[in-house]
Amino acid sequence: MALVKPIEYKDASPRVRAVYDDIMKTRGTDWINNFWKVQANDPANLERMWRNVKDVMAPGALDPLVKEMVYVAVSATNGCEYCTYSHTAAARKKGMTDAMFMELMAVVGLANETNRLANGLKPEVDPPFKLDPQFK
Amino acid sequence: MALVKPIEYKDASPRVRAVYDDIMKTRGTDWINNFWKVQANDPANLERMWRNVKDVMAPGALDPLVKEMVYVAVSATNGCEYCTYSHTAAARKKGMTDAMFMELMAVVGLANETNRLANGLKPEVDPPFKLDPQFK
Amino acid sequence: MALVKPIEYKDASPRVRAVYDDIMKTRGTDWINNFWKVQANDPANLERMWRNVKDVMAPGALDPLVKEMVYVAVSATNGCEYCTYSHTAAARKKGMTDAMFMELMAVVGLANETNRLANGLKPEVDPPFKLDPQFK
Amino acid sequence: MALVKPIEYKDASPRVRAVYDDIMKTRGTDWINNFWKVQANDPANLERMWRNVKDVMAPGALDPLVKEMVYVAVSATNGCEYCTYSHTAAARKKGMTDAMFMELMAVVGLANETNRLANGLKPEVDPPFKLDPQFK
Amino acid sequence: MALVKPIEYKDASPRVRAVYDDIMKTRGTDWINNFWKVQANDPANLERMWRNVKDVMAPGALDPLVKEMVYVAVSATNGCEYCTYSHTAAARKKGMTDAMFMELMAVVGLANETNRLANGLKPEVDPPFKLDPQFK
Amino acid sequence: MALVKPIEYKDASPRVRAVYDDIMKTRGTDWINNFWKVQANDPANLERMWRNVKDVMAPGALDPLVKEMVYVAVSATNGCEYCTYSHTAAARKKGMTDAMFMELMAVVGLANETNRLANGLKPEVDPPFKLDPQFK
Fold this sequence. Notes:
Six copies of one chain form a homohexamer. The first copy, chain A, has helices at about 15-25, 35-40, 45-55, 65-80, 80-95, 100-120. The first copy, chain A, is mostly helical. The N and C termini of chain A lie far apart (about 55 Å). Chains in contact: A-B, A-C, A-D, A-E, A-F, B-C, B-D, B-E, B-F, C-D, C-E, C-F, D-E, D-F, E-F. At the D-F interface, helix 5 and helix 6 of D face loops of F.
């Protein structure tokens, strides 16, 4: 059960409805997921967070499917249940197959493993890793 | 300073050298980074971890550059300094530009933000997210 | 389901009941929440943890409501479900309104975002941040 | 060393300088910290993140000092070095004393402790915690 | 509900059944837990992960029960629900009593607490901690 | 550099010195590490935390070396640099060899990996894991 009351479309203020309408239009869906319904308790933050999601997840230097898979990778690393379900669904909608999902999880698992081997054994960062091309 | 002594090539046993040789051959480089030099204190684990990295990071359903960027995303989320430096360098070598890196970080940041908004406000997972295409 | 059996008041030893009684008296309630009932499987640790909570959460240089909101912030960051529910309830009891909770979560989300932008882009710590007033 | 080149004011585009100017004006300082200088490699994200920080950290239902201390609490929980230094400095500037800082850290430490006791022993969430006043 | 379809023994390919058979034989059980059934969507990764678990958790310089308790400690720290249940069950099977479990959790809780006190107050690493016996 | 001034023995109040004396006596050393010197800015918390460490890390149902290795496992998982150095040193002092340390890290790495595979693929917790012996 959510810790604040989810705001349904029928109960929403015009300001909240405007965001809900834009979410549905942008996504080509006819419903609002609960993440936004709880954010709607603070209309200014709802607007702000939706603008952030729209801006960051728009096509750019990276492909939208790649971005969505990165989102799943972070959510699984953090153990966020809601986000893992919602962004896995979003990634599937954008074309992620079972094979891609399984391979993504293999990378996420391995990265979490070697992150701790490095944290625990404390190898020094090799100087070449600090001499990246962008500084030349 | 590392918490176990890094094993240099010249001091390594034939078993460890065999892994070092394969790392350099696979990567087309002539040096071994410190992560592997500390792992070499346990030759069986060195072999095991290198085999894991080779298998998981090989081309498959996902592009090698995408995998490397997912690795960076996980490492930044976990705050692993060594891994962030080493995998950012690896991703650049595979073609990640500054624009791609900045956009990757924007997604990582946003995912970490919304993960906590979901963790804290506790919206229920929407039923449609549990009805994914793979079950149909 | 808990991984150890929760100890109910009627089944508790006098040593455990003494802690339970103090919890209820301190909080002005007539029931014990499950966190303490599982801790009660180790009476020495139950006493120790309750003493810690009592000492740390008592009024001091910080306001009790501020402390409780910090507790919620940490629990959401870590994704601890039990703690998010219990400390949000505690914070509401101490006066946290919906508006305060939503604003708290906005700060928690933003901090988790910029933490990863810093972890991933690795800006150097600016020298002025290391010259704090307490050293003058 | 940062993983992208920090952009100094003298080398910045007018778009980036406009954000830098607003940061300095808002904070009443005459320098830009490295977090923003690395963000400046992506001007759109620089603008977006600065707007987020300005909006979220502005006075509202919570006191600015409380917000800054919550930021420190999250940063210490996540182990973000840059953020811990920068937001502790910011909190001191807003009035956090040594006594307040030590007490804040005591709460952060305790919350991280009990979060794991709950994660490991898995007490059920008590029903009263799900019957919060906002639903009445 | 899992995000990929769990593969039951009766529906499994010979390659997957071979791993399932080895898991049951190694553990002396007649059933497969869901972790492996979801991994089975990627037979190569199923083989790889089972080989890793078998190799790493085998008796060596550390006692198998100690290893299992370390697994529980990590899982509780990360807040992984599935892993906390499965590895606590495995540790009990290997001899962990309630008293040992409660004491383990007390260490896990304390370590998570002092980790954040160190992250937040930033004491310098004392030079003697960097002069470990293995370098002499 | 620490975020509060470390309190040296010569500058310490009698209350702080009493804790320092007990730390050195308990550990059989003639120096105080920086973790305690920063805690000493809050004498009540210094006393409290030292009492917690003494109580939790004392011999009990678990061996002191096992407890110290669990501490290292948690610290590496969380990426706490100070704690990883200090508790690895403590574990070595209590008898941890290089072979034990390498094996410990292999378990820590694997647990962090499978924790994320479970977080991301979301297998249901198998009912037998919820039917533990302590409930019979």
